[in-house]
Fold these 4 entries.
Entry 1:
Amino acid sequence: MDTEISGQEQSPLQLDLNEVTRKILFLDKWRGIFRLGTNNTNPQNHDSSHDSGEEAKDGSEMLWHKGQGQLPSGGFCSIPKLFMSSRLSGSPISPAMATMLQRSLFGNTVYVLGSNWRKAHFEFQRPFSDLAFALQVEKGGAQSIQMAVQGSIIKYFLFSREEKDCNLHSLCNLSQQDQERALAAVLAGILWTAGAAQKAIVCFVTKDIRSTSILDYSRDNFIERLQLFEFSEKEATERFIYDHLQCFKGEGSHGVILFLYSLVFSRTFERLQEDLDVSTPHLLQSRAGSILCSQAVINLILTGRASPHVFNGYEKGRSEETLHGVLTRSDVGYLQWGKSMSESDRLSQVGSMLKTPTFPIWLCNIGGNCSILFSTNRQLLSDWKMERVFDLHFYSGQPSQKKPAHLTIGELLKRLSVYFSALRDVAGIV
């Protein structure tokens, strides 16, 4: 199977794999040291996502480097309850591919995704309800992936299905089968786009460890069980995901992690290096003990390219380095706001490729929290007359929200105008 890990000598991201393999094998003597203080010394015992060592008391989502002292209690990754049959014709992950996967995600090989990530999967709200179209969203770094996928799910329900009404009622009148078909179609579509419409690779987990050297290397008892399935047709990808959807949506499936791995392999390591720049050398970021998605991950889901920035095209950074922005108009848009952002900072301003998407759906990043803003009227972005008064719906992903919020923008702006006029009169401002 072609996973495009060739050309390693000329790439700064890729290591000399012979040297990597030698170091991997050398780490065998450290296994006992890293497992001190844990109850699960046998890797075969990690068969549940709710084992006693899963939750780190300090809330950490990463495994510390061996030079930083004792490991947090939740450092070791449990194995999903749901397995893919090892008899299917997939290709087991190799030590070289595992190394490249880790370095593409973290920039090193010493971190693993923690408990919040391992819990995250793609599960819908109750069918035939006010939020039947919506995913249940977890806290932590996986939230941005779930909400980015949520935007494409809304696009599918409103604008991709034939002979379906584009209204809010249609989003509530969804069966479980409707939900599952949408999830399979959306995940397959995102992977296919990331693969440049040439191929998609889906990662699942098998019961058997395929390489003990990876186990010594990864220490998370998870990566070494990955099996990769490659498809040269989008429809075949969708059918395969639909047939094995429980591996993405089941509780304990590690579904978001598997989707992230599939996204990386579909994009290929070579393309990822071309997408990224000096400001973002890898896809995940460690911040305050948590592992978060960079903008490159969000853009990869929205546009199929892991561009690290939100402006259009290319820009020069403060040190004259070339920074990579969005090159194509996105189907689902993106808006952001944060206290640290300045209108004078051109590099933080969202460009038209994301601000005015093909469909009236926006992933909103407000202070690091993701939400979805959408309209059921597709003409909103193509007919200026629709901009006078229009409706938007808002889904925050918060458990407290029981139905999408409804905003009428024209009336809201009129009321704000009246309100500010009254304030000027009271204050005596001309």
Entry 2:
Amino acid sequence: MPNLIVKLYSVFFKYQQKHLLQTLSVSSLTDQKPTNSFGVSSRPHESIAASNPSFTDGVATKDIHVDPISSLSLRIFLPDTAITSPLPSTHDYGGYLPPPGTFHRKLPVMLQFHGGGFVSGSNESVGNDAFCRRIAKLCDVIVVAVGYRLAPETKYPGAFEDGFKVLNWLAKQANLAACGRLDSQSHIFDSFGASMVEPWLAAHGDPSRCVLLGVSSGANIADYLARRAVEAGKLLDPVKVVAQVLMFPFFIGSTPTHSEVKLANSYFYDKAMCKLAWKLFLPKEQFSLDHPAANPLTAGGQPPLKHMPPTLTIVAEHDFMRDRAISYSEELRKVNVDAPVLDYKDTVHEFATLDVLLHTPQARVCAEDVTIWVKKYISLKGHEFSY
């Protein structure tokens, strides 16, 4: 069983989250305005970690706003292993491209989607920042944490569309960077690299080794993107999704699973809270627990599962959503997709990503296990390139 500290924090978390969900439900019923297309990507109660372009504990971060017509934002996590030339004494990599003729490493790119039931959470939160730093260091990847628009201000498919927009943006970045390498005097770059090209990705990103990682509701977004990437095919070149990691996916369905009955009042997110979150996320006329966004096993899902990328699923013993995630993984294995499940004992929903649990042994082991599996699909010899 979870220890006393986890149980106490779960009570506090559920009280806070239920209050938020109820407040948002009331406001969405009384607000007659149309859906906010600009949206919000964080809540006032979130504790935010500031970005830091210096390599603190081996990782530098920066925030960029990639869509002028919405609140969609990104936080980029760059591990210092990407840098092969000595840095200035300040150790501040800033926003610049490496000097011509220097050597640097090309690292895989991981798109990360935070949890929060589609209604809360942030790519800049203290917990998400710490988790992404850990993954960037362990996996030796550039993590791009996506600040997608939250519900109910932005209903489905807003958050999913934001994810696909980032996937297309990543492809555009790679193509613009290639143009810059062909013509070092190209106007694509200005002195700060801020006009069109994101310099950290241009210098160090290898989108042909792209991994999707989603936490809770973020896992639903990641799985949707994996399907869209399969359908898009070469239209996303040079981006290639080589694997995805679904951590405690926010799956549900109208026919209860064993865990949804046994653990209906589980720690942190219980079934009643989950249903309310889905009511806030889905448009009223589309609400169904078997909506394709909620239930990945809904009949007629496209594309065929046999085309899905390798998929690692993380589940927790005391999470009511665990059984449906396991069932989805089983369906993937039936069509020969590499789709293992890692089941952690005495753990709760989001045990590896919540700020108060990040330093537990289970959270550390989970991150290490994810790293071992991901590296099977991102390993590549000859990482150094001359710019």
Entry 3:
Amino acid sequence: MLSNFALEQQLHTARQELSHALYQHDAACRVIARLKKERDEARSLLAQAERQAPLPASAATANVSALSNGKRVSEDGDMGPGSKQMRPGVSESIIAELTECNAALSQQRKKHQIPPTLAPVDALERYTQLSSHPLHKTNKPGISSIDINLSKDIVATGGIDSSAVLFDQTSGVILSTLSGHSKKVTSVKFVAPSNVILSGSADKTVRIWQGSEDGNCDCRHILKDHTAEVQAITVHATNNYFVTASLDSTWCFYDLSSGLCLTQVLIILSIPLICKVFSYCEYVNHSL
């Protein structure tokens, strides 16, 4: 009996020591997890600050001179969220320009009224197809994006066949076929009122095309700042800047005239949500 009593006491003591050790281990794991989270947040903030910090004049000049023959030259290849490349950042003059544009559009938005020519629902239900135009290759059929230049009645389509097509809706003829992407074209955008077209692709690149009066288009810049599929492009209301969103969890803010990426921001929101936000902003812009 005394032996059993001693064994029970030893077992009870061992259980207490084990419980205390497990409690200390759990507390240590929680502290380590919290420290890792704070470290990751600090690294993210530091990387974002580095991307948004303005470059010295010499570095900015070197970055601009890297544009050669319509291509962005990079010794390290494609840039992405983990890249250490410095961006010029959004200057005070650009912020003032964007703020002024926002104030002007806000005033118009308050006075905006539904136009009387807006088609009612019952009229839309009576719409019928007038014509069909096979614009892209039949071996890889499908259109993944579309945009319309209302002033010239020209339609731009991006296809799975890795090309974009400019179609004159009035005459019913193809004006130009923009070839150069190696994978499907995910987004096409007109930049009004200039003859500039933007195209984004699953090949991780964005192309800036310059159109001419005869309908031909030349590729002016090839932008390789993303490391994954470019999902969406939207043009700012000033028509001087545009934004791209990619599956690499970043969006880039570009200067349209130079094709220079001013800043690249890592995002936490999902890409589909970002694309919806961009689409809504573009809808508001077109509605005005």
Entry 4:
Amino acid sequence: MNEATIHFTLWMCQMLVIYAPFVEKDDILSDVTSRLWFTYRKNFPPIGGTGPTSDTGWGCMLRCGQMILGEALVCRHLGRDWRWAKDHKQREEYISILNAFIDKKDSYYSIHQIAQMGVGEGKPIGQWYGPNTVAQVLKKLAVFDTWSRLVVHVAMDNTVVIEEIKRLCMPWLDVAGEAEVVGELNGCLEGACALAEEETALWKPLVLLIPLRLGLSDINEAYIETLKQCFMLPQSLGVIGGKPNSAHYFIGYVGEELIYLDPHTTQPAVEPCEDGQVPDETYHCQHPPCRMHICELDPSIAAGFFCKTEDEFDDWCMRIRRLSCKRGGLPMFELVDSQPSHMVSVDALNLTPDFSDSDRLERFFDSEDEEFEILSLREARGEEHLETF
């Protein structure tokens, strides 16, 4: 490992921790090991009752989706400074998080749930996913996780709309507006008084996933510096993406190399113990993380961010706007206050694009003729520049 600084998405005491190699080697390994590591598994119950019992060869992006969401749940319930220790009794919240990903049909974010929900996105069980599809699936599954009560928002068309996110994370704003009308009719704010506690929460924790395309067949080097800056944001969850034949969960960088967790290891499925504990050693990567040159990255990625409070989201917006003023790299996405009139509703988007005119983008992932997804027609035509970051 060279003496370049390694940047990881660790937030302690409201400050980003930047590790220096050699001096803090143990801290680096502890950070990596503490992240949930989801890999291929075999011998789990058949998906859908009669489907595959292993995801080897097709589930790598699904596992990467599990990892980025798993990091969000750790931040949500345990905090960014939480550390896993082998052979130690684990906190109850940690066990609950791990149980949400166990390979069985009734776990919130299991391979079973992701694969079956993906059918609605046009992906048959056993077919390779792109980053956009897995983001859309996680958004739908999070609705059923009443314990975490996350808002998973997928920002489409390379645009993050602040007004839209605040409406999702603070639904009481809309309900309170309706309640005020009721109050005018009945002489009191009956509607507001009747709101359930969960509806009056000041802010529902936000998982923001931004599918992006940073070039055509290869990543445009003009985006590299901006991508690095994303890892340095304290709200960062990392990036899911990959290269031909592989999908990875990227958690940081050193110099011109990305640091990532690799799902391409097949392990036996795990069954929880009778006391509810989970044999968890195989869910933590206990060796140094993998590295790859950033130029090898496929241009289709999804960047993730977690904002537990409104203040954290406001801080993220401020940091993004500062980055947009910096020189030295192209902006990756646009941050706007309200939805531009030209934007198409997410519900109207076709999330399974036609690649008939995009042969040069062809990729082969895990022996599947499945390309990373193009997020808009203008990108398919080769218009790589995305307005503002």
